[in-house]
Amino acid sequence: MKIVLEHISKRYPNRDKKVGGVFTAVDDFDLTIPDGKLIGLLGPSGCGKSTTLNMICGLEAPTEGKIWFGDTDVTNLTPELRGVGMVFQSYALYPHMTVRQNIMFPLENLKGPDKLSKDEMLRRVEEAARLVQIDELLDRKPNEMSGGQQQRVAIARALVKTPKVLLLDEPLSNLDARLRLTTREEIRRIQRETGITTIFVTHDQEEAMSICDEIVVMERGIIRQVGKPQYVYDEPDNLFVSKFLGTPPINVFEGRIERESLFIGTQEVLDVPGALDGPVSVGVRPEGFVPEPDGPLVCKLIAVERMGRDTSVVASHDAHDGVQMRAIVSSDARIDTKSDTVRFRIRPEKTRIFDAETGERIHFFGETMEEPAEVMAREARANAKPVAPQTGADA
Amino acid sequence: MNTRSMKGWLYLIPAIAFLGVFVVYPLFDVIVYSFEEGYNSASQTFFGTGIYNYQYVLRDPYFIQALKNTFILVIVTVPLSTLLALLISVGLSSISKLQELYQTIFFLPYVTNTLAVGLVFMILFQKTPYTDGFVNQIIHFFGGSTVDFIDGPYWAKMTVMCIYTIWVVLPFKILILTSALASVNPDYYKAAKVDGTSSWRIFYRITLPMISPMIFYLVITGFIGAFKAYGDVVAIFGTNLNAAGMNTIVGYVYDMLYGNGGGYPSYASAAALVLFAIVLTITCINLLIQRRSVQTS
Questions:
Q1: What is the separation of C-alpha A368 from the centre of its chain, rounded to a whole number of angstroms?
Q2: How much is the average pLDDT of A36-46?
Q3: Which residues of A are less than 8 Å from B196 in CB distance?
Q4: What are B's interface residues with A at a Cβ cutoff of 8 A?
Q5: What are the φ and ψ backbone dihedral angles of A308, each rounded to 5 degrees?
Q6: How is chain B classified by DSSP, letter by letter?
Q7: What are phi and psi of A108, to 5 degrees?
């Protein structure tokens, strides 16, 4: 089921009169979600991603805008009429019911022509339980199960009505690190097997990057960027997105451009043909530093951590916005650990420049390995991204 | 005995001494009194031991009346007050405007003096040759024949007693149930709503099981409280409860000790132990039912 969110906004009355008595949780959210994809709504807590999910679900009504499921305007429909299944962060499994009763609960609500016989219900429950691989545990109570198993029960309960859309609100945040890895693969597998359009809310960029077809990065109710995870990581539209994606995070320096040269502090580090003069924020991914004896970027060396495959260099620089910066370099790289300083060359394809005030991306030639002509073509493609901001309901 | 457990006992001494003097010893003494025939508290003498006190009490028509009154009170008020409290709490939880104001209003009777409330009830329900109480005025207005609820027929007095008891116990139950309702994770309701569950089914299948431990707590304490009714009865019908035919078991015990025909600690002890046995039995039955039906999460 293709979902179109047409300029939806959600405003709450706010007691704080300073902001006009209104709190805007979601602001002009415009997105088309293609059928059968796994989409991640990603952002820091309080960015409006859960509110957006609740609006898609029908638990909350948008203040403005329309929601379309296929050709149907569902803006004013209740959740059960929309045909959605939802998995809550707390799982919300009824503790007094067995797993079987929990999964059957949504089916027992069906009325009229949709009403199922008891046998049919039991068959559907078994089927859903098999899909999430908990068919051995149907007679247990939720509190007799591990977090990961409870999670599967919650997914089975959401899927048993064969919804057109599956919504997951922070589904992995209550699991420990190891379970999180396997469970997110599991969600991916279930999504592929069922082909249900799935929207998945998370604040963990790694989670979203690893399993989603497309990610939507949000900040304070606004979409900051939409795209394939790797594309958004490589080509962030703004400083917020570049800082939000990636572990370890991108290193941000204060810098300026003078006559097509990029300066960090007083050090001239990169040629940036095509960029205009002015103050900028420079983001360099940890893998964008290459240690060289006469590299242009001079940093204070704090520590060298060897971690098998890679070596992590912890250093500091006056123009860096944090306490320390982290570079990940190849383990063959020779670094003089006795020295106070370490010098780097920075790789243009791992360096992104943003306007110092607005945080918007400033492009320069040579920021990718591609030729300028290819950059133009890529820009054109980027404007026609598969998940593109939508202006009309051409569903 | 090693030092460690010696230390433990040392810390326990104040509590054990206090409980021993004021709880265990009196309890034990009551049992002893109840088997001593004709015990005289002034001369500290008695002339025999046996079950005579129990035989006397159980044949005493005043005790039988008190037993009957108490049972009616328990059977009528405990289920009714719990049900009413549940309805009011659900109502309170579902409104959003002025919820706190209403909660305060419903809680006010809890902090009001029992005797004052009793007096108000008496004035509301009474009927004297000179004036009709408010309730009788209403009955009169609708063309009914007026009844003296305070000094009239038994059923009328019992009705007032039950209404009064329900009114007095309601605030605490509402307080407990509203907080129980508020403690249910809203995600359960959201999940049920996503599945299109009707509000009655949400209440019956989700809310009720979730708050059932609290309901059972209220039923058990309600039973115990109602079996021990005394002050409320005095507040409405005065101290001469036997004459009014409205005595309760605790009232009977009190009368045997200090009332007009007082000075019979042996009978009082026997009656108190009968009450103890009843309350114990009922509480055990309650707990058994609870263990079977209440879901722990």
A1: 23
A2: 87
A3: 78-81, 106, 109
A4: 185, 187-188, 190-198, 201, 205-206, 209-210, 295, 297
A5: 70, -105
A6: --HHHHHHHHHHHHHHHHHIIIIIHHHHHHHHHHHBTT-BTTTTB-S-BSSHHHHHHHH-HHHHHHHHHHHHHHHHHHHHHHHHHHHHHHHHHH--TTHHHHHHHHHGGGGS-HHHHHHHHHHHH-B-SS-B-HHHHHHHHTTPPP--TTTS-HHHHHHHHHHHHHHHHHHHHHHHHHHHHHTS-HHHHHHHHHTT--HHHHIIIIIHHHHHHHHHHHHHHHHHHHHT--HHHHHHH-S-HHHHT---HHHHHHHHHHSTT---HHHHHHHHHHHHHHHHHHHHHHHHHHHHHPPP-
A7: -70, -20
Nearest CB among A79, A81, A92 relative to B187 is that of A92
Closest CB from B188, B196, B295 relative to A109 = B196
- Residue A9's DSSP bridge partners are A64
Distance CA A46, CA B193 (A): 24
DSSP bridge pairs for A297: A344
Residue B198: list chain A partners with CB under 8 A. 109
pLDDT, tens digit (0-9, with 9 covering 90-100), for A280-289: 888 888 888 8
Q: What integer is the mean pLDDT of B19-47?
A: 83
Q: Which of B131, B103, B70, B130 is nearest to B275 (CA)?
A: B70
Which chain A residues are Cβ-neighbours of B190 within 8 angstroms? Answer: 59, 86, 88, 92
Q: Name every chain B residue with its beta carbon within 8 A of the beta carbon of A95.
A: 210, 295, 297
First-to-last alpha carbon distance for chain A, in angstroms, is: 11
Q: Does residue A36 belong to the interface with chain B, where contact is any CB pair within 8 Å?
A: no
What predicted TM-score, i.e. pTM, was given to this entire model? 0.76
Number of neighbours of residue A274 by Cβ within 10 angstroms:
13
A278-284/A197-202 β-pairing: unpaired
Q: Does A163 touch chain B (CB under 8 A)?
A: no
> DSSP character for A336?
-
Q: How many other CB atoms are found less than 10 A from the CB of residue B111?
A: 7
Q: Which pairs with CB-CB distance under 8 Å and at least 24 residues apart come from B105-113?
A: B106/B170, B106/B171, B106/B174, B107/B171, B107/B174, B107/B175, B108/B171, B109/B167, B109/B168, B109/B170, B109/B171, B110/B171, B110/B172, B110/B175
CB pairs under 8 A between A and B: 56
Give the helix ranges, DSSP H, for A235-371.
Answer: 239-244
- Per-residue confidence band for A277, with pLDDT thresholds at 50, 70 and 90: confident
* Beta bridge partners of residue A40, listed in sequence order: A200, A215
Residues in chain A closer than 8 A to B192 (CB atoms): 105
pLDDT for the residue A345: 83
From B203's Cα to the closest Cα of chain A, the distance in A is 13
Q: Cβ of A302: how many Cβ atoms within 10 Å?
A: 16
Answer yes or no: do A57 and B197 touch at CB < 8 A.
Answer: no
